[in-house]
Design brief:
The complex is a heterodimer of chains A (256) and B (14).
Chain A: E1 2-6, H1 9-19, E2 25-31, E3 34-40, E4 46-53, E5 60-62, E6 66-71, H2 72-79, E7 87-92, E8 98-104, E9 111-117, E10 126-127, E11 135-140, H3 141-151, E12 157-163, E13 166-173, E14 176-182, E15 196-199, E16 203-208, H4 209-215, E17 224-229, E18 235-241, E19 244-250
Antiparallel strand pairs in A: 1-5, 1-7, 2-3, 2-6, 3-4, 4-19, 7-8, 8-9, 11-15, 11-17, 12-13, 12-16, 13-14, 17-18, 18-19
Helix pairs in contact in A: 1-2
Chain B: E1 12-13
The chains are: A mainly beta (256), B mainly beta (14).
Chain lengths: 256, 14
């Protein structure tokens, strides 16, 4: 049996909003670490990996590992019935046909109970090799979102160039070209607004902007995003939460 | 999707 109580339903709502345009039918894999998800998009260009750590739930009770096969459009409909500040409890049996979602307001005078039908989803899990990235850039997630939205107006793809001087996002399309360069800077008063670049060697890679714009839907989860790059491996875009993360991996464009 | 790599070719099947 699973019983997992989350202080704020808004956390799960934001996670689902962040990934539901990329992946549709997913398994929530529940084990001792927490509730995890790994799924590729239909075209197998991007992969999303999510973990809500068991420490983030109180209580988190699980008798045996279970996979909850969920259609995210359906889950979104049920989660719309919760207020962001509601306490959310997820409950499921050991071989579940349904997932129970219970929403309680903070005053504890309203309890809503929903049952979501589960699906059998046969999903392959990919092993993600441990990677020492050549460059790791942390920056405000809103800034990254703005850059992606701006550049997609000119082109389908963006070249990300990380060097000691900074990180340059550049694109070129039918109407012209554009670039945004961010220099490393440390905002002492507001650390979340800092741009930090950890670099072992310069990297230049090109990615599809359509996917990056999609990843940016996770900006509500964290004010900071980390981009990790190495030549010839997928880009890692990570949004860290208090007790968990949403990570997106994007295969680079090749032969450009 | 010309020139677009696939994620399967980087990560291994479990």
């Amino acid at each position: 049996m699973l019983e997992a109580r989350l202080e704020q339903a808004g956390v799960l709502k934001k996670v689902v909003d962040a990934i539901r345009d990329l992946v549709q039918d997913i398994n929530f894999d529940c084990n001792d670490s927490g509730i995890a998800l790994q799924a590729m998009d239909n075209s197998h260009v991007a992969l999303v990996s999510m973990l809500l750590k068991s420490e983030g739930f109180s209580p988190y009770r699980l008798d045996r590992n279970i996979a909850l096969g969920i259609n995210l459009t359906s889950l979104t409909k049920v989660l719309r019935c919760a207020q962001n500040e509601d306490i959310l409890t997820l409950k499921a049996e050991d071989t579940p046909d349904t997932l129970s979602l219970i929403f309680e307001n903070a005053e504890n005078d309203r309890i809503s109970e929903y049952e979501l039908k589960l699906m059998d989803i046969d999903q392959e899990h990919l092993g993600i090799p441990e990677t020492e990235y050549a460059a790791a850039i942390s920056m405000p997630s809103a800034e990254f979102q703005r850059i992606c939205r701006d550049l997609i107006q000119l082109s389908d793809s963006v070249t990300i160039e990380a060097s000691k001087e900074g990180v340059k996002f550049s694109c070129s399309g039918d109407i012209g070209s554009g670039s945004v360069t961010l220099r490393q800077q440390n905002n002492v008063d507001k650390p979340d607004l800092s741009t930090k670049i950890e670099l072992t060697e310069p990297v230049t890679l090109t990615f599809s902007l359509k996917y990056l714009v999609n990843f940016c839907k996770a900006s509500a989860l964290s004010s900071v995003v980390t981009l990790s790059l190495s030549n010839e491996v997928p880009l890692l875009v990570e949004y860290a939460m208090g007790s968990g993360f949403v990570r997106f991996y994007l295969a680079p464009k090749i032969g450009e | 999707n010309p020139g677009q790599g696939s994620i399967n070719s980087y990560f291994f099947k479990k």
